[in-house]
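TA notes, week 10

Several of you asked for a full example with nothing omitted. So below is the full record: structure tokens for the whole chain, then the designed sequence directly under it. When grading your own attempts, check the secondary structure regions first.
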């Protein structure tokens, strides 16, 4: 009997080890291709600004692609969360190429979006194919979805530990099995090292120094963290608002990104800058060194919310990094804290508030900026999470715990869409 159990255990370890290795390599390779493609798209766009005039046509192409081939996939990250919580249908593999192509088109022609949503959706779509390949049951399918999210997030940002925790936390942390937690960590590192294998590098940020703790310092940290939480709330609400407005005013879905593309292109030519479109990584890097304009974060919220609300594809997290980093950087003029520390705190704190994932964001901050700033990062992520309200960027996400009890009695009024 013991020998039989040992054999079953070894077979189980081998099966899941093989799944993690295959999924990590496939998802990591997809993320590596995405990162290279977005860098190419940004270079082409910045060197040939006339290409922004084709944003409406790019939007129409995205709209038609999802209308005819991705009726289910159009739900994006929310589909992954829904299938984890209430399984009903297999996540279609076509989600991966649709979101990849849509994201590249969005960035190439001048939309404001991120990349993590794309990587997570590709990871989730690839992962769910393993359900039939390995004949997994519903419980194991939940683990597979977590693994897909973990692999996609970890590989696109180069933060494997944060990627694993994000996947667990975003789907409702208290209902995660130990098996899922361990496997999420394993697949995250497989995906992370796959990106390194393809020699694709991630952007590096740094916080060179942190001040000693004092009552004044703590008060400053708490105030700016609340502001980060309010910025996260504004971003989430504006994205949902634009999405609802487009859906109400334009019933034929493929026309929404085309109309949105026309308005974005006209606006870009009017303001004469491309600072607030694409990923905005150069502005994020600069924010750690030079104080940002006080309005930079607000314009990024407007451009990104409008872009995604109109139906263009991409993620929200890198724009959230932009919003948080530039907001923190601008606050360095008012608050006596190092500019790099404020930018770094905002970088992860706004993300924490918008996704309801303070643990993952704290770990990400430590992975990116070092342990010395860990306490500042942790406080910022927690306070921003509590201050950002009950509505996040993922509408299908279940919010529980202290934050749920804090906001459950607050009646949220739907915006008047004219």
């Amino acid at each position: 009997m013991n020998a039989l159990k040992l054999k079953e255990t070894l077979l189980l370890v081998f099966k899941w080890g093989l799944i993690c290795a295959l999924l990590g390599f496939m998802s990591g390779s997809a993320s590596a291709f995405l990162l290279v493609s977005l860098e190419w798209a940004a270079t082409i766009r910045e060197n040939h600004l006339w290409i922004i005039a084709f944003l409406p046509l790019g939007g129409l192409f995205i709209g038609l692609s999802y209308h005819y081939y991705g009726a289910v996939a159009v739900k994006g990250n929310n589909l992954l969360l829904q299938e984890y919580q209430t399984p009903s249908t297999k996540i279609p593999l076509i989600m991966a190429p649709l979101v990849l192509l849509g994201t590249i088109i969005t960035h190439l022609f001048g939309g404001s979006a991120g990349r993590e949503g794309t990587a997570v959706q590709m990871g989730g779509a690839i992962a769910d194919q393993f359900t039939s390949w390995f004949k997994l049951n519903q419980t194991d399918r939940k683990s597979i979805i977590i693994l897909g999210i973990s692999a996609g997030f970890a590989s696109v940002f180069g933060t494997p530990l944060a990627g694993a925790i994000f996947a667990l936390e975003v789907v409702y942390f208290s209902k995660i099995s130990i098996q899922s937690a361990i496997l999420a960590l394993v697949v995250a590192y497989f995906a992370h090292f796959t990106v390194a294998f393809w020699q694709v590098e991630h952007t590096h940020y740094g916080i060179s120094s942190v001040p000693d703790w004092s009552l004044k310092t703590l008060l400053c940290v708490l105030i700016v963290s609340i502001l980060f939480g309010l910025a996260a709330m504004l971003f989430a609400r504006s994205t949902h608002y634009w999405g609802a407005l487009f859906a109400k005013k334009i019933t034929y879905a493929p026309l929404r990104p085309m109309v949105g593309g026309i308005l974005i292109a006209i606006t870009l030519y009017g303001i004469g800058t491309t600072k607030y479109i694409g990923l905005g990584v150069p502005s994020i890097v600069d924010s750690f060194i030079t104080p940002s304009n006080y309005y930079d974060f607000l314009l990024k919220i407007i451009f990104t919310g409008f872009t995604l609300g109109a139906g263009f594809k991409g993620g929200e997290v890198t724009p959230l990094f932009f919003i948080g980093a530039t907001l923190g950087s601008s606050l360095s003029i008012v608050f006596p804290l190092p500019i790099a520390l404020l930018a770094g705190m905002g970088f992860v704190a706004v993300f924490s508030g918008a996704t309801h994932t303070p643990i993952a964001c704290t770990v990400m901050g430590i992975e990116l900026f070092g342990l010395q700033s860990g306490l500042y990062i942790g406080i910022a992520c927690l306070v921003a999470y509590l201050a950002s309200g009950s509505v996040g960027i993922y509408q299908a996400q279940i919010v529980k715990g202290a934050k749920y009890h804090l906001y459950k009695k607050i009646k949220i009024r739907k915006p008047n869409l004219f």
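The mean pLDDT is 92. Use that as a sanity check on your answer.
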